[in-house]
Every structure is written in C-alpha cells, then in structure tokens.
Amino acid sequence: MSNAYAGPVPVRPEIEHDLPPLPAQAAERPLPWHERLWQQAGLRKLVILALLAGIWELAARYTDNDLLLPGAVQTAQAFVQGMASGELPARAGQSLRVLVQGYAAGVALAFVLTTLAVSTRFGRDLLSTLTAMFNPLPAIALLPLALLWFGLGEGSLVFVLIHSVLWALALNMYAGFLGVSETLRMAGRNYGLGGLRYVLQILVPAALPAILAGLRIGWAFAWRTLIAAELVFGASSGKGGLGWYIFQNRNELYTDRVFAGLAAVVIIGLLVENLGFDTLERLTVRRWGMQR
Predict the structure, then answer these.
(1) Residue 277 carries which DSSP code?
(2) Could you say which residues of the chain have pLDDT below 50?
(3) Helices 72-85 and 87-119 sit at what angle, rounded to 10 degrees?
(4) Which of 14, 106, 127, 261 is the most exposed place for a label (fewest CB within 10 A)?
(5) Is 33 helix (H, G, I), strand (E, B) or coil?
(6) What is the extent of the structural domain holding 265?
(7) Where do the ABC transmembrane type-1 domain residues begin and end (predicted)?
(8) CATH number for the domain including 219?
(9) Rounded to two decimals, what is the model's pTM?
(10) In this structure, are residues 218 and 32 in contact, taking their beta carbons and an 8 Å threshold?
C-alpha cells in the first residue's frame, strides 16, 4: 500500500520574540513599616486585647453600675492595687504551686498508662476501659469524694487535678504513638530497642506534636478545674489561691477585685500559652519540620 502523500514535509519558520524584562521581585522591595509591624504576632494580639478592653469599657459606661459591671480602667486599678499589696501574687503563687503538683502527677501517670498500652494487650485494654469510664466525668464532680478521702487541703485539689490532666493527655499520647510510621518502628527494633528504651527513643520523639497538644489541653483543663475547686474550698475552709480571692471579694461585693482576680487567671493562662507552650513548640517540632 503506497502513501497518499510522498512529498517533502513542510518546515515551519522559526520566530523569535523579544520578551519584556521581568519586573522586580516583590520580596526584594522593602515592605512599608506598618506592614512589617503587622507581621508581628504579638502586636496583633495586643491590638485584639485593646479592642476587647475598649468594648468592655464602653459596655460598663453604658450599664453605669459598678456593682454589676466595673469598667476596664476600674478593674486595672484594682489589679494594680492587688499587685502592690502583694495579695494577688501570693494567691497566684499558691494556685500555681498546687497546679504544678497535680499537673506533674497527671503527666507521669499518663506516661505510665500509655507506655503500658503500647507494650501489652492488657495495657491497651486497660487504657481504653479507663478512658471510656472517666474521661467524660467532670473533674469537679469528684470534689465531694476528694473531700471525704483527703479532707480539706491540697490533697483534694491535687486529686481532681490529676483526673483533669490524666485522661486527655493519655488519649493524645496514645494516638500519637499509634501514628508513628512503621519504618521508624522497624528501625528501633533493628537496633534492638525494646520496652522503655523503645518508647523514649522512638515513640516519644516521633509523637511529640501529639504529646505537646495533649500537654496543652491538660494544662487548660487543670487550670480551670483548680480555680473552680478553689471556689468550693473557699466556701468550706477559707483557704486557697486565686479562686478563693475571687470568692471572698464576691461575698464582700468588691466586683472590681473579682474582675481583677479573673484578669489574673487570664493573664497567667496567656503567659503559659505564649511563653511556655509556643516557645516549646518553636524550639522542637516546628524547628524539626514536624509541624507547620
């Protein structure tokens, strides 16, 4: 069968176009000063806090009732007076001392449970059963039992703090351990790691983002549980930290001091989140490329 067209193949002429010069890259041009400032996360958060304080002050002036809603300026004055007298720092120090004890004990127990869960089938069943039973139970609901078992004192507070930290951290830690890739697991086994060494050298570094998330959640649960528990202890024994400070001033109708105590709770929470956990994440998982 012969080709229908046996002539030469036509060749298209080459055409050259002169392209315009590329524009200067945007990254090479310095940003305006206001855009550079706005890129600072701390400044953006301060702006948000200032807006909230402004709305608060306007609402207080509209209400015009200091007993019901003191303004942001009045609360700031009460906060400064409490700091100058030393009462607020003393109450905050008392709360943080108890919090560290309960938080550390909860972290240690969570590590033991999750290590047992990834090592044995019985530990896995134990962790699953305990978390299903106790994780939905509010920590403050255990306070009456804590009062019966440990009496009025720090022991009861530490007990409810352990409950508030333990289950959230254990669930996050165990989920992080389960998410470790099989390649890393095989590498650990090839090096002869087992038991606690396997957990510390393979599972914990690989599951660090999930562990830090669990630590952050456990801290939030523990902090608000402590303040709520101190309110109850304040009604019972007249002792406590910031929760008792809030309760006492509420009974004496010093609403500005009540708001000053709440502001101290919020400020401590912001400092722990931004100076504590954010710094820890930046120095570890973000630096190592494990988290964006």
Answers:
(1) I
(2) 26-27
(3) 90
(4) 14
(5) helix
(6) 100-283
(7) 92-276
(8) 1.10.3720.10
(9) 0.77
(10) no
